[in-house]
Amino acid sequence: MPTSLLTEETENGVVVIRLSSDNPLNPLTDELVDALVSALERADADPGVRAVVLTGSAKAFAAGADVKAMVPLGYCDAFQQDYIGRNWDAVRKVRKPIVAAVRGYALGGGCELAMMCDIVLAAESAVFGQPEVALGIVPGAGGTQRLPRAVGKSLAMLMCLTGKSITAAEAQRAGLVAEVVPDDEVVRAAQQTAGAIARHSLPVVMAIKEAVNRSFESSLNEGLLFERRLFHAGFALHDQKEGIAAFTERRSPSFTDR
Ligand code: HXC
């Protein structure tokens, strides 16, 4: 049995959740994903947490779903247990922003987990890929859906159909990754990015996350209407008055999340 599956450390409103299973490749076992979902739900409910950093080991963010657990599964087991859907779907219900700090392998479910995060920062060592095809399986946690949205159809097809992985620099050029930083700085960089988010009004940050995610779910017209309604709703916030007053008075705003 693993001694610990992940660690959580909170500093200045930012919790760093570090996947740290016994295997530094962090295979995403059911137990690890359950622990991750619990940690994310705790962070979402904790008023002392304003943003999340998700990271793995120096060797791997995560090398995919636990392939060994798939060996005994038949169709009925997978369907009836809602294998993967049962726990993984909870990650995208988190309302506070999640910044991924990826070192080493982000393969299969690991790449899919990174894509469920809101911002991906990559270490120079990061490798992204969807190698499932080589195992005779289809990606199961969004690889065929989120990857084309992130990198476009052609590169997504190349990665999913051949299993070819891409480097951090390629991932940044393709739009999967926001920034590439040296390995020993990536977690700190993610904490700084999350810290910059955490200084803003939390309800505004949460509304922006919801609106950007809505852009993947709706037509442009529907998305624009959703954004306009949120924009109008913002006039009911104290923090909106405070932010605008601070600008006009040439001072820093003091947000209260109201
Ligand atoms: C279970 C895994 C694993 C995984 C590695 N291991 N990846 N176990 N699930 N995804 C285990 C190996 O079996 C081995 O166990 C130990 O970790 C070390 O692995 P090595 O291969 O010896 O390490 P290395 O040579 O450094 O190679 C690293 C690697 C390689 C390139 C990342 O391990 C690899 O290709 N892993 C599989 C990557 C993959 O196919 N991912 C997609 C999985 S499917 P033992 O006991 O032999 O020491 C997927 C579907 C998603 O993610 C569906 C929805 C979530």
Compact summary:
With 258 residues, this protein is of the alpha/beta class.
Q: Please estimate the helix content.
A: 40-55%
The largest sheet, given as strand count, sense and whether it forms a barrel, is: 6 strands, mixed
| Low-pLDDT regions | none
SS elements, strand count: 10
The dominant shape is globular
Structural class: alpha/beta
Radius of gyration, CA atoms, in whole angstroms:
19 Å
* Residue fraction in strands: 15-25%
Determine the mean pLDDT: 97
Strand order of the largest sheet: 1-2-3-5-7-10
Ends apart, CA distance between termini = 45 Å
Spell out the helices and strands N to C.
EEHEEHHHEEHEEHHEHEHHHH
Count of DSSP-assigned helices: 12
Small molecules bound in the structure, each named once: hexanoyl-coenzyme A
Q: Name the assembly state.
A: single chain
In words, what does this structure look like?
By secondary structure, this protein is of the alpha/beta class. The chain is 45% helix and 16% strand. It is built from twelve helices and ten strands. The protein has helices at 30-45, 67-70, 75-81, 85-88, 109-116, 143-151, 153-162, 168-174, 186-198, 202-214, 220-233, 238-248; strands at residues 6-11, 14-19, 51-55, 60-62, 98-102, 105-107, 119-123, 127-129, 166-167, 179-181. The chain has a six-stranded mixed beta sheet, with helices on both faces. Helix 1 (30-45) links the parallel strand 2 and strand 3 (51-55). Helix 6 (143-151) crosses helix 7. It is globular, with a radius of gyration of 19 Å. Hexanoyl-coenzyme A is lined by residues 23, 25, 27, 63-68, 84, 105, 107-109, 112, 131-132, 135, 139-141. Hexanoyl-coenzyme A binds next to helix 2, strand 6 and helix 5.
